[in-house]
Design brief:
The complex is a heterodimer of chains A (about 80) and B (about 675). With about 80 residues, chain A is α+β, with helices and mostly antiparallel strands. Chain A has helices spanning about 25-35, 70; strands at about 5-10, 15-25, 45-50, 55-60, 60-65, 75-80. Chain A has one domain: Roll (SH3 type barrels), CATH 2.30.30.90. Chain A contains 2 helices and 6 strands, in the order ββαβββαβ. In chain A, strands 1-6-2-3-4-5 form a 6-stranded antiparallel beta sheet. The model of chain A has no long low-confidence stretch (mean pLDDT about 90). With about 675 residues, chain B is α/β, with parallel strands linked by helices. Among the domains of chain B are: about 10-185, P-loop containing nucleotide triphosphate hydrolases (Rossmann fold), CATH 3.40.50; about 195-280, Helix Hairpins. Chain B is about 60% helix and about 10% strand. In chain B, the strands form 3 sheets. A 7-stranded mixed beta sheet of chain B has the order 3-4-5-2-6-7-9, with helices on both faces. In chain B, strands 1-10 form a two-stranded antiparallel ribbon. In chain B, a hairpin with a 2-residue loop joins strand 4 and strand 5 (about 65-75). In chain B, helix 7 crosses helix 8 (about 220-225) and helix 23 (about 555-565) packs across helix 25. Residues about 1-5 of chain B have low confidence and may be disordered. Classes of the chains: A alpha+beta (about 80), B alpha/beta (about 675). Chains A and B meet through helix 1 and strand 5 of A and helix 3, helix 11, helix 12, helix 16 and strand 12 of B.
């Protein structure tokens, strides 16, 4: 298992960590997300994901609530155990 | 990998010779910026709007040694891009008004994220200081930040503070002194654009040279263009020769990813600066915020908690506020009326009537609602300050989606239970314009405390012991109607447009009491100002309609209007008196009772309640309560709807909407209730 599969942020389960690999929303949403610290290469922790509705992630010590739609535009790779 | 070259620019402040210096407070939301502003200025502050914008502007002054310091609280912004009106205001203030100093407030508990704004401020010419606030919250979450190390890394003064406990103010003032005396040395390390985009930026620098408006640094303008900044884009497009602009536009199209690269570059600069300053001794420890959030943001637990908190807020508001209101009504307003009658004994009868019935009756009624509103503001402000409100928005997000809105719209709507005026103003937190308009249109459907008071007064007349159940049912129904209207409006006007939901959940923290009190004071004052002026005018108008032409209510213009619209009233089972009561509720909702009091007061030997219950059937009572709950927004609310939407079109849409829905619902209720034999 050299390269880990790329999944979206919405696929992470509560308590899992990942690294952001790309932002695939439109230009405006990308700008807002990157301002808040969602930049490629940064570690992101899934605080709450109940499988439906909005999620809460922790990025750079900040908890941010995201709509599921927005979370699906953020590509991540899971951290290896 | 990005190549990153170190770049420092040495500068020494020359000192300030003039007597007044202006300092701008900048910072992201939830950094405690307002608390610091309140600590420094106290009551000596002025709240208004930024010119031409519906964004709150706070300014204040304080004396420090021989200087007057004029402090401007810039709107809380995450960055200096043109994503929102707040961001445009903040950056244009710094670039065009050129304050002597910018103080950036950052939170030790969200250090990297909050330094993002600093990475944008530090490249501007204005000298910069950093206040490192919320050191206590960082410790509560399990880490420490060393201000001295951070200062050495960034190269501008970093002043540690715990604003909620008023600690660190002395240190900040000392730095102001040193700045004024010219003893401070700035040695900022500036963030650089990554090497792979450096050449593009230089190219654009050359192309825009000579065309950038004076107040925008050229270097900054080209950076903003690359970031995809809409305001700078439009400005330069309008001033550059077409050919040259097309070249630039092509370059920008080829480098759409530059915005992300620039943001990443800034975060690299931040990571470099904080690396040595942050110490995490207890890695992996679960902080207070996460422990509370396990429950507070749980899809079921969170809703239960929200319901309990809302219930408590209502209970507190009405169990403390309502008795005070009744006390003010009977012990202040009534004696005041009698007193005015004695004072004005020699005045013409119409003057007495104007003062007693018009001014004291109308404006007084609204003023007595102040205790309820203050308690509601206090509870709301407290929940906001400790960081809970964002969680409420989060757990309500699913429900708001049905209306094409997201969680953030819940906050102003909730505020509407106290009073619709702050609810409409509170929609400023919503970024997207369609979502904001929709929330404004829905806000008047939230039954405010005045309408709930009318219901609470009338329900016992018809339903005795079941009054509470009936009132509760009515309020729940009006919320259901709000949601149905929201779903329909979203389909018709906004074509199901969905806006992005991105919201910070701030760390829980204990707020500063003094600052919280100041906020309540300001909100109450602005409520009084907004409501007071309009209601005074409307009181006089309605009073005039009720006495002219003959001086008798039964033949007045008001009665004529009542008779004119009586056919519509009949659909709901209302006679002209109830219809008039409904119409006067436009001035202030509680006027419905006041008007009935005037209409029945003189003839009855029974109390108003008994008279009403003997005159009307429960079906009529029910229909009257339904229509009162959802009738056109009161005058004060209409005024703020016009102010916030900036358009008469939306204001009228809102009025017509409420009119149709309320009359429709009440007619339906009347038809069903009379069928059932009520």
């Amino acid at each position: 298992m050299q390269s880990l599969p790329i999944i979206t942020l919405a696929d992470l389960k509560s308590g899992e960590s990942a690294t952001i690999s790309a932002l695939k929303a439109g230009r405006n949403i990308n700008a807002r997300l990157s301002t808040l610290g969602f930049t490629p290469g940064v570690m992101i922790y899934m605080t709450h994901n109940y499988g439906h509705g909005p999620i809460v992630v922790t990025v750079r010590d900040t908890r941010i609530a995201l709509g599921r739609g927005e979370a699906q535009t953020i590509l991540v790779t899971r951290e290896k155990e | 990998m990005n190549l990153y070259h170190e770049f420092r620019q040495r500068s020494v402040s020359n000192g300030i010779k003039k007597e007044t210096l202006s300092i701008a407070l900048a910072g992201q939301p939830n950094m405690g910026k307002s608390t610091i502003f309140n600590l420094l200025t106290g009551l000596n502050q002025h709240v208004g709007n930024w010119p031409g914008k519906t964004v709150e502007k706070k300014e204040g002054e304080f004396q420090h040694n021989d200087h007057t310091i004029h402090l401007i609280d810039l709107p809380g912004t995450y960055s200096l891009s043109a994503n929102s009106p707040e961001e445009i205001i903040a950056r244009n203030f710094i670039l065009q008004e050129k304050p002597d100093l910018v103080v950036a407030v950052v939170s030790a508990a969200n250090l990297e994220r909050s330094l993002y704004l600093v990475s944008e401020l530090i490249v501007l010419e204005t000298p910069l200081m950093i206040v490192l606030n919320m050191i206590d919250v960082a410790e509560q979450e399990g880490f420490t930040v060393d201000a001295k190390t951070l200062q050495a890394a960034i190269g501008v003064p970093v002043i540690p503070m715990i604003a909620s406990r008023a600690s660190g103010v002395r240190g900040l003032l000392d730095y102001f002194d040193q700045f004024i005396e010219g003893k401070l040395e700035f040695f900022p390390r500036l963030p650089q654009i990554s090497a792979d985009h450096q050449y593009v930026k230089e190219l654009i620098d050359q192309l825009i040279d000579g065309f950038v408006p004076d107040y925008y640094p050229k270097n900054w303008a080209s950076m903003k263009l690359l970031e995809g900044d809409s305001e700078i884009y439009d400005i330069l497009k309008s001033v550059l020769p077409l050919e040259r602009w097309e070249t630039i536009d092509d370059i920008l199209k080829q480098h759409e990813d530059a915005g992300l690269a620039i943001a990443s570059g800034r975060y690299e600069w931040i990571e470099r600066n904080v690396r040595a300053a942050v110490n995490r001794p207890k890695l992996g420890q679960v902080g207070l915020t996460d422990r509370i959030d396990r429950f507070a943001t749980h899809p079921i637990g969170g809703l239960i908690l929200l319901a309990v908190i809302l219930g408590l807020t209502f209970w507190l508001t009405f169990s403390i506020g309502t008795p005070i209101q009744e006390w003010m009504d009977s012990k202040i307003l009534v004696p005041l009326g009698s007193l005015a009658q004695i004072w004005l004994i020699d005045a013409p009868a119409w003057v007495i009537s104007l003062v007693v019935d018009g001014v004291i009756g109308g404006v007084g009624a609204v003023v007595t609602f102040l205790p309820i509103i203050i308690i509601f503001f206090a509870a709301f402000g407290f929940l906001e300050d400790i960081g809970y409100m964002a969680r409420a928005a989060y757990v309500m997000d699913n429900f708001m989606h049905w209306m094409g809105l997201h969680g953030k719209s819940f906050l102003p709507l909730f505020l509407g239970f106290g009073c619709n005026v702050p609810a409409v103003m509170g929609t400023r937190v919503i970024e997207s314009w369609p979502a904001r308009i929709l929330t404004i249109l829905l806000a008047p459907f939230v039954p405010c405390s005045a309408r709930m008071a009318v219901i609470a007064f009338i329900a016992p007349a018809f339903f005795g012991r079941n009054a509470f159940l009936i009132s509760w049912g009515l309020i729940l129904s009006s919320i259901t109607i709000l949601m149905i209207v929201g779903v329909i409006l979203n389909k018709i006007f906004f074509k199901g447009e969905r806006t992005a939901f991105i919201m910070e959940l701030p760390l829980y923290h204990i707020p500063n009491l003094r600052s919280a009190m100041l906020l309540i004071w300001q909100r109450s004052l602005s409520f009084l100002k907004h409501a007071g002026t309009i209601i005074l005018m409307m009181s006089i108008v309605v009073w005039a309609l009720s006495v002219f032409p003959g001086g008798d209510l039964e033949t007045s213009f008001l009665a004529q209007i009542g008779n004119f619209v009586a056919p519509v009233g009949e659909w709901m089972g209302l006679d002209w008196k109830l219809t008039v009561a409904l119409i006067t509720s436009f001035m202030a909702k509680e006027n419905a009772i006041a008007t009935l009091g005037v209409l029945y007061g003189r003839t009855a030997e029974f109390g108003l309640l008994e008279t009403i219950s003997m005159t009307y059937s429960p079906a009529v009572g029910m229909a009257f309560m339904v229509v009162t709950l959802m009738f056109i927004p009161c005058a004060a609310t209409v005024a703020v709807i016009k102010q916030e939407t900036g358009s008469w079109k939306w204001t009228i849409v809102n009025i017509v909407l409420m009119l149709v829905v309320s009359i429709g619902a009440a007619s339906g209720v009347y038809a069903i209730a009379s069928r059932l034999g009520l």
